Amino acid sequence: MGNAHVKPHPRIRNKKQVHWRAAGGLCFGSKKHLDIARPQAPGKPYLASDTENTADLVTIRWSKPVNDGGSPIQGYLVEHRRQGSPHWVRASTLLVQLPELTVSGLEPGWRYQFRVRAENAVGISDPSELSEPITVTLQRSAITAPRFTQELQDATGLENEKIEFTMPHLRQNTPTV
Fold it and tell me: Where do the Fibronectin type-III domain residues begin and end (predicted)?
C-alpha cells in the first residue's frame, strides 16, 4: 500500500508535464492517474477605459487562460516594451494576482505593447497575444502653472548676504515626488 512513483516519459519531460499515479486501495483497488501541465496563454491584454484621463498611468486587463493545465493559476507575469524594441521589461516585480494591472512610470511620447503569461505549479505559459499599441501622452490639462496671490517686492542686499522671497501662491494638481 502506498503511492507508486512513475518516471515521466522522455518526450513528456520536454513538454514540462508532470505525472502522478496514486495507488493503494483508492476506490476499491482502482488506480487514478492525474496529469498537470503548463497553463494556456491568457487572453490578449487591452487598455481599461477608466484610465484614459490619467497622465502616466495605464491600466490593462486580460482574461484568464481557458485551461489552467490542471493546476490553479498562481499569478500573472506582465511585460511591456516600446513598440519595435525586441526587449521585454517586467511591469511588476511580483506575480500579479488578478487579471488587471495599473502600470506607472512609462515615458510620454512612446508607444508601448503589453503581453501576459500565466504561472501555475508546473511552469509559465506561452505569452498572450500582444496588446494594441498604447501611446503614453503627457496631458497638459493635468499640469497647471502656479498662480501668485501677491506681487513680488523689491529687496536690497549686500554681496554674500542671503535674501529670501516668500510668495504665497495657489496651485492645482500639485505633483507628487
Answer: 41-140
User: What are the structural domains of the chain?
Assistant: 1-36 (no CATH), 46-139 (2.60.40.10)
Q: Cβ distance 113 to 68 under 8 Å?
A: no
Maximal CA-CA distance, the chain = 101
- Spatial neighbors of 54 by CB under 8 A, at least 6 apart, are 139
Cα separation, 94 vs 122, whole angstroms: 18
| DSSP 3-state percent helix, strand, coil across the chain (nearest 5) | 5, 25, 65
Residues 94, 135: Cα–Cα separation, whole Å:
25
State the pLDDT confidence band at 113, using cuts at 50, 70 and 90. Answer: very high
Q: What is the pLDDT of residues 114-147, one digit of tens each?
A: 999 999 999 999 999 999 998 887 655 455 566 6
| Residue 139: closest CA among 56, 51, 46 | 56
